[in-house]
Structure formats: structure tokens, C-alpha cells
Amino acid sequence: YPSELLMQKITEDNQIPVHIHVSVSLQYVAGLKGRALVEFFHSNIAEVENEELRHLMWSSVLFYKTPSVEVMACVLLSTKAIYFLLDDSFIHADEHQSDFWNKENSDCENSSFHLSCCFVLKLNDLQSVNVGLFDQYFRITGHSADHIVTCLTRDSYNTHTFIQQLMAVLSLLARTPSPEPVDKDFYSEFGSKNTGKMENYELIHSSRVKFIYPNEEEIGDLAFLVAEKMDGLTNLPSLNILLYVLAFQVNHFEGSAQNTSSLQPKTLILTSSDLFLFDEDYISYPLPEFAKEPPKRDKYQLADGRRIRDLDRVLMGYQTYPQALTFVFDDVQNQDLMQNLTLDHFGE
């Protein structure tokens, strides 16, 4: 340890997405290669001497205590813990976070010394991992509200790779084995006898950590919700969700000095007749066991919706991934204007 293959892999993975702006301290981390990266981990991050770095990933993260603040993080998986190396600006983004982070005032604010904070989730404290729809994100749950983090990878490959690596590392943990399960049939295993409703698919790892995957009903619930937002214009049986993807909406600001743009996280849902943008709560659902009350907002909140028939053209940028798409719709204020004109013109 470390093997050449591991060093090559973490060097390749150590790249900040081009559309994300991070602090100088995280840029420094992203500039490290191979053995220098491993040495940086052991001298600055690792909590015990004999732990090994196994995987590195850059991802946006959300914390349960601050569900509205999405921040870029370097996620480091070792044989002992998951480390989230965070942008220092995150601490100052919200006054309510001071209790959460217990941050002391530092004298190095104005010097050339750049600070990052590191959130640690020990593998022994890990209880469950919820994988989001189409592997666009996953939520890691520990034993309290402080230990719930969602990684918004927006990429099924990154999600799949991290989950694989996490399972491999959890297999090394020495935990007392759970009692042998009694043989159950399919219906008693997956269904609740009280409601008859199918539960989400659960895989209980040998370390007793639950890996929970969404089932088909979540898509059905989402289709029903989308149909509701369409004011019943479409009959539900024919409504198919063709695409679900976590994306960013680009808001362009024309400033005096230079034109700037901000990225607003959105969930894009495409059906056979409409294009929707939702504000989705990625961290509060499903409810953790210790939650006393439901979250303040619904899981899906409609931000925008347009009919495909009103789509005039789609503009595509030439840059590599992530690709920028601009959807240009006919500028009709009242979507049913044509229909109303026809009725007025031809009478009842």
C-alpha cells in the first residue's frame, strides 16, 4: 500500500468538475497527484495511522441540518471512515451552522493560509445508505441528524463506483454477525402485511449496514405527482416518465464589471408531452428513524413546466461534459390561448 493501480485511479478521479468554483484550499488538493495525494491524506486527514485510502470522489454534498446549502466536497473513503473535505466558505454561508460545526474564530482569515474543514463519518457509525432514483445521488445515514449526508453525484457511474468501494471496505469491518435469518417467502420478505404495500428493496450488508434502493412504486408516485401538476390535462395511464436527471438551471446576470451566471440545482423530468423542472428535497426523504415530524417542504416542488408542443428549438453548446442545453419555447403567456380563440371564433 499504496499500489500503483490505486495511485493512478485516485489521480484520475482527483478532478474538480469544470463548472464548479471552489476555494484555493480545495484547488490545492485537486492539484495533488499519486503519492503526494496519499501522503497529504495521511498527514492532514487520516485519524489513525494504519488506515488506507481506498477511493476519492468530487461531489456536491448536502447536510441534514442545512438542507438548503449545497457545497462542493472532496469525498475520501478509507478503511476507517468517510471524510468530506469542504470549502471553507461553507461555514460562513449560514449563521445557523456555527453550532453544527463548533468552529472557533481563527486568526488566519486574512493571511495566505487557506483553511478547509473536514467532516468525518466513521464507518462503525454508518447505519444505512439510500440510493436515489436512477443512481443520481445517494444519502449516507449515521446515528443522529448530524450524521446524515447526501452526495449529489449527478452521475450513475460515480454513484455505482462509490457504493461498490464502500461495500468492499465495510466487508473488512469486524462486527458481531447478525442472527441467522428465518427463511421467508417473497411476500413476507418484501411486503408489509398491514398495508400490502411493497417496501423499497433493501440489501443488508454483512456489516449490518442497510443499502436501500428505490422500487418501481417511486416512479409511479412521481408520475402521479407530475400528472397532478398538469391539472389533469393528461390521463395518468398514458403518462410515461422518459427521463429523470439532476441538473442545474443557469441564471445569467449581466453585471457592470462582467457577466456572471449562477447554477441553481434542479430535477429535470421529461414526459411524452411536457418538460418539468422541480426543486427536490434530496436529504429529508425517506424520513430518518429519529425524525419527530415531517420535513417543512414536500419532496418535489414544481419550479417550471412547459409543453413539448411549445418547444421551438434546442441549442446545444460545443463544450464537453457537462453539456449545456438551452430550450427555447414559443413565448405564449396563456398556454391555452389557441384553444380559447378557437372556441370563441366558432361558437359553442
From TrEMBL:
Keywords, in A-Z order: Cytoplasm
Record-level GO BP terms: Golgi organization; lysosome localization; regulation of protein localization
Superkingdom of the source species: Eukaryota
Entry keyword annotation includes Cytoplasm: yes
Transmembrane segments annotated in the record for this chain: none
Residue ranges annotated for the Nischarin C-terminal PH domain, each copy included: 241-347
One GO CC term, this protein: endosome membrane
Chief location: cytoplasm
GO molecular function term, any single one: kinesin binding
Subcellular location: Cytoplasm
Domain PLEKHM2 PH span(s) in chain numbering: 114-178
Classification via InterPro entries: PH_domain-containing_M2, PH_NISCH_C, PH_PLEKHM2
PANTHER family with a match to the protein in the record: PLECKSTRIN HOMOLOGY DOMAIN-CONTAINING FAMILY M MEMBER 2
Protein name, entry field: NISCH protein
Organism for this UniProt entry: Melospiza melodia (Song sparrow)
GN (gene name): Nisch_1
